[in-house]
Write a structure and sequence with these properties.
This protein is of the alpha+beta class and about 725 residues long. About 60% of the residues lie in helices and about 10% in strands. The protein has 24 helices and 15 strands. A hairpin with a 4-residue loop joins strand 9 and strand 10.
């Protein structure tokens, strides 16, 4: 395979000369860039609009050519699949986990900084619950339909009358048709991203001034984003107010943000990196469907299964047509009026009189008078169509990842619940991957929000919005705020777990917490006798407990309480040691106690090492079980594939056999035709010979007759 690359070699000097310098050239440059981006995604945008209509079952009746009344029947499995995925991927507004990069038990400043940021983000999420819910649902639906979900973060600051300032970092949803981007093979290569904003005249005057607001064109907004869709769309769906379209262009190459409206001869505004984010762009990588390294453009999921959806609709249309044809229809002798009366007047236990019964019986009675349409042939064809439709639906479920195994169905009565859960996990790998992608997108979005807060929010607003003044770690709070203000040093990890976004598995959550409490109870029961016998070992055991808790999710708040307990325990031990001078016997006992404590530490380390080894062994066993289950699943899929290949081979062999039979029959027909032609030619030749002989004989007779006549004439003279 060869790849043709069009090379347009340009010198560096030419590039420098082509750079826009005047305001008019800069405006023309971005007008060209935006137009090129629109052309690049035009084909996908048209598909996206058609997919949205397919999802809503909007059909163009004028283009329907089938004989079914109302056009092609739609078995809208696409809507069902998308709705199912939406329910599986998104259940509620997520809870945000913020943790320090390294879970060191003694790093209290980082722990408090993480807890502060977590409180702030979750508080904002709770206060604006409906807004975040609408944003995440819209982004997810855009991804499942058009293949592109986009959201971004902003920074708003407003001065109050009392001298204070109100700071916010809101998140905005952008419709897939209101975003453009430069040429690139992946998100990291994109040179610029543009967001389309719609401003009324008052908003434009407030943002850019009255002079620049006059340069803008104000039109009504249409539902469709393509010219083709807008021209054929419903005018009743247009907006009431006229607004101007202003593109907010984030140019990563020169680290500037530019505002431009198509048709203007100059940029409306230009600012140098207003947010100062580490990745510059105010949005995370797009929630993109099926990306490839050829070009950073989405490929909608529907496009990959479109042929199956259309074939199912065709089969459903034929099923509907045949279903309408399955009725009691027939013909009868017009002279036998009683036949029609059976249907019009016949009720239970009613007899219809028939005139001339003897003649009626001679004609075969009712069977001879009525001939019904062959319904069984139609029913058999209907059964075949239903079978073919169900097979296509099964194929569609396999292609789209909506296989029955995801719903936990059992193949046989001997299959256990554990086996079903393993099959469900492997059967829904693509759904789980999509769930992880959605959670990653939401996490990246919240990371940007946390970065904006860290870079731009004042310490007072961070403390006020996080409500950390009255926490147990209030003394550490100032140092934690200073750490937050340095995001490159703090390295806080903002994570939204997939199960937090999706439908909550309360049983799993309860199992995790019960398991932790059981382990904590066992630990406390084990160390209680030691603390009673050796009170000075209490701080060490509490630190061990804190070390164990540092690795658990959501342990930041309770870690502060344990810190206080450790501090109080160490203080009590020091006060007790300072209040009394130990005797030689007590010193010896202390030495012995220290030895015992060292010995205890060694034993605890051994126990810890053994626990870690056991855990690794269990993990290895679990991985082996998962690999075995995966191998069984792959074997099953291979068996299904082999069966399918065998059926295809059988069909191919039958087709070849039928073709060979037709070729033999054709050759026989050709030979028979040739023999027939030869026989006809032989008959024609024989007839021609007979005609020639007959003509010769007649000619001889005529000659002889003429000769006799001449002779007689001569003799008479």
């Amino acid at each position: 395979m060869s790849i043709n690359v069009v090379k347009a070699e340009v010198s560096a000097e030419a590039i420098e000369q082509d750079k826009p310098k005047t305001p008019t050239e800069k405006a023309a440059h971005w007008d060209t860039q935006l137009e090129a981006a629109k052309k690049r995604i035009a084909k996908w945008a048209k598909k996206a609009e058609r997919i949205n209509k397919r999802y809503l079952a909007e059909k163009d009746r004028a283009n329907q050519t089938t004989g079914y009344a109302g056009g092609t029947a739609q078995l809208n499995l696409f809507y069902a699949n998308v709705s199912t995925l939406e329910s599986m991927l998104y259940g509620s507004v997520p809870k945000i986990d913020v943790s320090r990069k390294y879970a060191d038990a003694a790093d209290d400043v980082s722990r408090v900084a993480a807890e502060t940021m977590q409180r702030l983000l979750n508080t904002d999420m709770d206060d604006n619950f409906q807004d975040y819910d609408s944003i995440l649902r819209s982004v997810l639906q855009d991804r499942l339909l058009a293949g592109l979900g986009v959201a971004r973060v902003r920074y708003d600051v407003e001065s109050n009358d009392d001298g204070s300032i109100t700071e916010e970092a809101p998140i905005d949803y952008y419709f897939w048709g209101d975003v453009l981007w430069g040429w690139g093979r992946n998100f990291a290569e994109l040179p610029w991203i543009a967001f389309r904003n719609y401003l009324t005249l008052e908003e434009a005057q407030k943002r850019f001034g009255k002079k620049k607001a006059k340069l803008l064109k104000y039109t009504v907004r249409t539902v469709s984003v393509t010219d083709e869709g807008a021209s054929s769309g419903d005018r009743d769906s247009n907006s009431e107010d006229k607004q101007a379209q202003v593109w907010e262009i984030w140019d990563k190459q020169d680290k500037k943000v530019k505002w431009y409206s198509e048709g203007c001869d100059r940029l409306l505004d230009c600012k140098t990196d207003p947010l100062k984010l580490s990745k510059f762009f105010p949005c995370p990588p797009f929630f993109l469907a099926n990306p490839t390294t050829t070009l950073y453009i989405p490929t909608p999921d529907y496009q990959l299964s479109e042929d199956l959806y259309n074939e199912i609709d065709v089969l459903q249309t034929r099923i509907n047509l045949l279903t309408d044809a399955v009725k009691a229809v027939g013909v009868y002798d017009a002279g036998n009026e009683g036949v029609q009366r059976m249907f019009d007047e016949g009720t239970d236990n009613t007899l219809i009189p028939v005139d001339s019964w003897a003649a009626f019986a001679e004609k075969g009675g009712l069977q001879g008078a009525v001939d019904w349409m062959p319904i069984m042939d139609i029913v058999n064809a209907l059964d075949k169509l239903v079978q073919m439709r169900d097979q296509n639906i099964s194929l569609l479920q396999q292609v789209s990842g909506m296989a029955d195994v995801m719903r936990g169905s059992l193949d046989n009565q001997y299959e256990g619940v554990g086996q079903s859960e393993i099959k469900a996990k492997f059967g829904s790998v693509r759904v789980q991957a999509l769930q992880d992608q959605f959670a990653r997108f939401a996490s990246d979005l919240m990371k940007l929000k946390a970065e904006v807060i860290a870079l731009h929010f004042s310490p007072e607003n961070i403390v006020a919005q996080s409500n950390m003044r009255h926490s147990v770690d209030a003394e550490i709070l100032p140092a934690a705020i200073q750490l937050i203000k340095k995001p490159d040093i703090a390295k806080l990890s903002v994570v939204i777990r997939p199960e937090s976004v999706a439908m909550v598995d309360f049983a799993q959550m309860q199992t995790e917490r019960v398991g932790f409490l059981n382990a904590l109870s066992t630990f406390m029961q084990s160390v209680a006798p030691l603390i009673e016998a050796k009170p000075e070992a209490e701080p060490f055991l509490l630190k061990m407990l804190q070390w164990g808790m540092a690795g658990f999710k959501g342990a930041q708040e309770i870690e502060g309480t344990i810190d206080q307990a450790i501090e109080a325990s160490e203080k009590a031990a020091k006060e007790k040691a300072a209040s009394k001078e130990p005797s030689p016997e007590e010193k010896a006992a202390q030495m012995e106690q220290q030895k015992e404590q060292a010995k205890l530490q060694g034993e605890m380390q051994k126990i810890q090492a053994k626990s870690q080894a056991d855990m690794q062994t269990r993990q290895q066993d679990m991985q082996a079980d998962m690999q075995t289950a995966q191998a069984e699943h792959q074997a099953k899929m291979a068996e299904i594939n082999a069966s399918l290949q065998a059926k295809l081979a059988e069909i191919d062999a039958k087709l070849k056999s039928d073709l060979a039979l037709e070729q033999v029959q054709s050759r026989i027909n050709v030979e028979q035709h040739a023999r027939t032609v030869q026989n006809e030619m032989a008959k024609d030749r024989q007839q021609a010979e007979l005609d020639i002989r007959s003509n010769i004989a007649n000619a001889k007779i005529e000659i002889e007759k003429s000769a006799r006549t001449t002779k007689n004439d001569t003799e008479s003279e």
